[in-house]
Amino acid sequence: MTRSESPPAHPHKHRRWAVGLSVALHLAAVGLIIQASNQTLRDRAPPKEAVVFLADIQPAEPPPAPPVSTPPPTPMLKPDRPTPREPEPAAAPPPGRAFMDAPPAPTAEEWALAATYTLKNSKRYRHNWGQQVRSQMGTAHEGPEQGIVRFRIEIAPSGTLARLDTLWTTSAEIEQRARTAIGQMPPLPPTPNGKPLIFEKTIVFNAWTAESPPLYKNDCLPDPPPRGNRFVWDGRSPQGPPADEPEPEKLDPQALADCLKQLPQDSIEAEAADDQRQQEQWGSQKLGR
Fold first, then answer.
1. Any idea where the domains of the chain sit in the sequence?
2. pTM of the model
3. What's the CATH architecture for 107-207?
4. pLDDT, tens digit, for every residue of 77-92?
């Protein structure tokens, strides 16, 4: 008896499974590629632009400044006498050189007081005259342009210069400078006693000497009598007993009291200058005082 064999399975069935599996794998791979491409495109997309708005804001105006009140104008007072011309400012001295500025000229009030002071040959008038001259001579500098000059002056009762004589001088240039200042002086008030005023005055023009104001407290006392050598003899004239010294003048108490009332008050500078003069005259170098 013959044995029959069964036919093998159909080969097309296995091929269909293989093709389906291959298609599924390819679709999955294509899906992954598409997803990766979309992600890359999203990463490369340009960022969104930011919109910025600029606002033009004007700064606030500052508050207005408060109004400045102008002071009322000061009324101009008419001077009693012409104002003297101010000395021209001198050039600055070279470094290391001493100098002294010119003193201020006497004011109209000081001249008015000097025109009424009759004691000691019009002491106040004479001091103002010297200060006026020195003020108009300008600044004194250390060096050869310094000097001293002494004048004899005669002032007419009207206050005008009647005569000017040079007694001595250490510098012809300083003498001429002082004469120029005297010629440019403003009109002066009349003399205190209504008579010609004759006096001598030394003008010092250097970098160390300043004229101190006068002292008035002793002006009511009489001048001390002149003293000399009572025993002097020329060797030819007959000798006799020495002459008696003159007695000091005695003052009436009432006249002295009235005189003291018109004395001006002395300044501290005048007191200090008087003390310095006495110290230089009576001081002792040996005693140290």
1. 107-207
2. 0.61
3. 2-Layer Sandwich (3.30)
4. 555 565 656 656 656 6
